[in-house]
């Protein structure tokens, strides 16, 4: 988001959170982190240092923002995200190749059925060329959304219990197109799809949320 005037990144975050809240979407501004949102908040407006500035015009400053949702049902997603994205667009937000759309889906059944992680990893390995084929070409080489390697294909084949899955996940990095490391944290228990580029377009967000949910 462009910084107009003498403020800084925190001022843009705070103003965006205030405007969202005033439109009936409770939001907070905070630094980057993985802590749960406050119980009364639906969105967190955070600073993301991994984003790269635009540089077309000298002297223009940018606020590097990531907007994160609280865990939501699909009904909440449909109600909250379209007006929130409209407000974010009105602020002048834009995306570039450094931005990503990360979708989390709750998958607590791996505790009782660790083979779910194995099966999902098999599908990911088999069809990842197709999935990378439907996103921007830059996502295929992005350092935060890497495609799987041959050694990943059968990563969980020997896992027989959640304890073994937990140990295996502890050796993995999260910067993959499909990130399963959150399954090792009882407070999260999600699979994260990271390969889609950043967007403020509700139609794209909706399609990707539904597609990845059906995939899971």
* Straight-line distance between termini: 33 Å
Average pLDDT: 95
Q: Low-confidence runs (pLDDT<50, min 5 residues)?
A: none
Helix content: 25-40%
N to C succession of SSEs: EHEEEEHEHHEEH
Q: Which quaternary structure do these chains form?
A: single chain
Principal-axes geometry comes out as globular
Percent of sequence in beta strands: 15-25%
Largest sheet: 3 strands, mixed
| Structural class determined from secondary elements | alpha+beta
Strand order of the largest sheet: 2-3-5
* Radius of gyration from CA coordinates: 18 Å
Put simply, the count of helices is 5
Note down, in words, how this protein is organized.
By secondary structure, the chain is α+β, with helices and mostly antiparallel strands. The chain has helices at residues 9-22, 74-90, 115-133, 162-169, 202-215; strands at residues 2-3, 27-30, 43-47, 61-62, 65-69, 100-106, 178-179, 190-197.
Output the keywords.
216 residues; alpha+beta; three-stranded mixed beta sheet; three-stranded antiparallel beta sheet; 8 strands; 16% strand; globular
Topology, element by element:
Layout: E1 2-3, H1 9-22, E2 27-30, E3 43-47, E4 61-62, E5 65-69, H2 74-90, E6 100-106, H3 115-133, H4 162-169, E7 178-179, E8 190-197, H5 202-215
Short description:
The protein is of the alpha+beta class and 216 residues long.
């Amino acid at each position: 988001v462009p910084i107009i005037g003498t403020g800084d990144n925190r001022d843009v975050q705070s103003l965006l959170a205030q405007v969202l809240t005033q439109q009936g979407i409770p939001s907070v501004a905070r630094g980057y982190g993985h802590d749960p949102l406050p119980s009364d908040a639906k969105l967190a407006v955070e600073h993301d240092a991994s984003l790269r500035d635009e540089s077309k015009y000298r002297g223009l400053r940018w606020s590097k923002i990531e907007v994160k949702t609280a865990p939501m049902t699909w009904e909440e997603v449909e109600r909250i995200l379209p007006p929130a994205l409209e407000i974010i667009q009105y602020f002048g937000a834009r995306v570039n190749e450094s931005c990503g759309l990360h979708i989390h889906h709750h998958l607590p059944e791996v505790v009782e059925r660790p083979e779910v992680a194995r099966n999902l990893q098999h599908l990911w390995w088999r069809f990842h060329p197709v999935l990378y084929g439907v996103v921007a070409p830059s996502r295929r080489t992005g350092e935060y959304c890497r495609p799987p390697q041959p050694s990943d294909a059968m990563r969980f084949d020997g896992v027989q219990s959640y304890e073994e899955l937990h140990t295996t996940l502890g050796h993995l990095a999260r910067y993959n197109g499909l990130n399963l490391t959150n399954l090792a944290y009882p407070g999260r228990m999600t699979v994260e799809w990271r390969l889609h580029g950043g967007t403020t377009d509700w139609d794209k967000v909706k399609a990707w949320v539904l597609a990845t949910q059906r995939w899971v």
